[in-house]
Design a protein that fits this description.
The chain folds into two domains: 2-133, NAD(P)-binding Rossmann-like Domain (Rossmann fold); 139-164 and 196-256 and 265-283, Rossmann fold, CATH 3.40.50.720. The N and C termini lie far apart (42 Å). 40% of the residues lie in helices and 16% in strands. By secondary structure, it is of the alpha/beta class. Strand 1, helix 1 (10-21) and strand 2 form a beta-alpha-beta unit. Helix 1 (10-21) packs across helix 7 (168-180). The structure holds NADP nicotinamide-adenine-dinucleotide phosphate (NAP). NADP nicotinamide-adenine-dinucleotide phosphate binds next to helix 1, strand 2 and helix 2.
Length: 285
């Protein structure tokens, strides 16, 4: 039995679907089972990771966990202690490419937060695998899609900033390989994950226009206005600061492309154009 946290999230929904497709048994956690829209093959469990002790009975017969920081937050240690007590052996953590190894201090709040969760997982005594993706393509669903639908224009800083956005299904596919693996195969591995191509923000908008058949325009803003625009789109200000810093650092070179999706799944990573095709309606006005 596999226990999926964040099962209604971008990555978790695919983890549930892909595990079921492999014939695995899945227990999927959500705070609101009625609204979850999870597939009938999954055993849906209502619960809140803010109160990890209440979830202990749901961990019976579970061998491995998929852990999403958006779901587990500050309760990681308590939840993992309950999991270990109930006989869980393995955890696959959705972490972040912002985490650096071998440094005294992490750079920025996103890295600090993910490193804290990684440390709690390492200290849990469970076998672990860390997935460290960079930019999710899904970020564009809240950063760009509303303005594209409303105006056909994206207003943002650093149009030449290059990233290698990853399809959420590829993160899930790697997670499922690690969850289903034989004992020890991916234990202690830290996999950096990316999409298969380095794309500037200009490239991404061009591809969205091509795939959805719309003329779209990029209005490049000075950094401070770009930050303000992100905050107005609902990005928390500390995340806007972090994103702007990543973008500023990413204007002069291609983004690194990781081989991990291909190596672990045996197929190439999904392209950005494929991701846009999967979400085309979100960008149509
Ligand atoms: N965005 C990026 O570029 C990026 C890059 C690297 C890493 N990441 C990592 O990926 C995470 C986001 O993953 P995602 O996009 O798949 O998630 P998401 O779509 O934001 O979904 C969040 C999930 O967490 C669950 N959740 C929230 N609070 C909970 C609680 N108290 N108890 C139980 N479940 C709770 C929600 O379930 P219900 O609402 O159904 O309860 C939902 O399934 C980030 O937090 C970060 O750690 C993101």
């Amino acid at each position: 039995m596999f226990f999926v946290t964040g099962s209604t999230g971008n990555v978790g929904r695919h983890v549930v679907d892909l595990l079921l497709a492999e014939g695995a048994k899945v227990r999927a956690l959500t705070r609101d089972p009625r609204a979850a829209g999870l597939p009938p093959g999954a055993e849906v469990v209502g619960g809140d990771l803010g109160r990890p002790e209440s979830l202990a009975p749901a961990l019976d017969a579970v061998t491995a966990l998929f852990l999403n920081p958006a779901a587990v937050g500050g309760s990681t240690a308590g939840f993992l202690a309950a999991a270990r007590e109930r006989g869980v052996r393995r955890v696959v953590l959705l972490s972040s490419a912002s985490v650096r190894d071998g440094v005294a201090e992490q750079q920025g709040p996103i890295a600090v937060r993910h490193k804290e969760i990684e440390d709690a997982v390492e200290a849990s005594g469970l076998e672990w695998t860390f997935l460290r993706p960079g930019e999710f393509a899904t970020n564009l669903l809240f950063q760009w899609a509303p303005q594209i639908r409303a105006t056909g224009t994206v207003r943002a800083a650093y149009g030449m900033a290059a990233m290698a956005p990853i399809h959420e299904r590829d993160i899930a596919a790697v997670a499922v390989r690690a969850l289903l693996s034989g004992s020890g195969e991916h234990a202690g591995a830290r996999y950096e994950l990316s999409g298969p191509e380095s794309l500037t923000q200009f490239d991404k908008l061009r591809i969205i226009g091509e795939v959805t058949g719309q003329p779209l325009r990029f209005e490049e803003l000075p950094p401070e206005e770009g930050r303000q625009a992100m905050v107005e789109q609902g990005v928390p200000s500390f995340v806007a600061d972090a994103l702007l810093a990543y973008q500023a650092a990413a204007v002069r070179h291609d983004a690194p492309v990781s081989p991990a999706v291909r190596d672990l799944t045996g197929r190439p990573g999904l392209t950005f154009a494929e991701w846009v095709a999967d979400h085309a309606e979100a960008f149509r006005g």
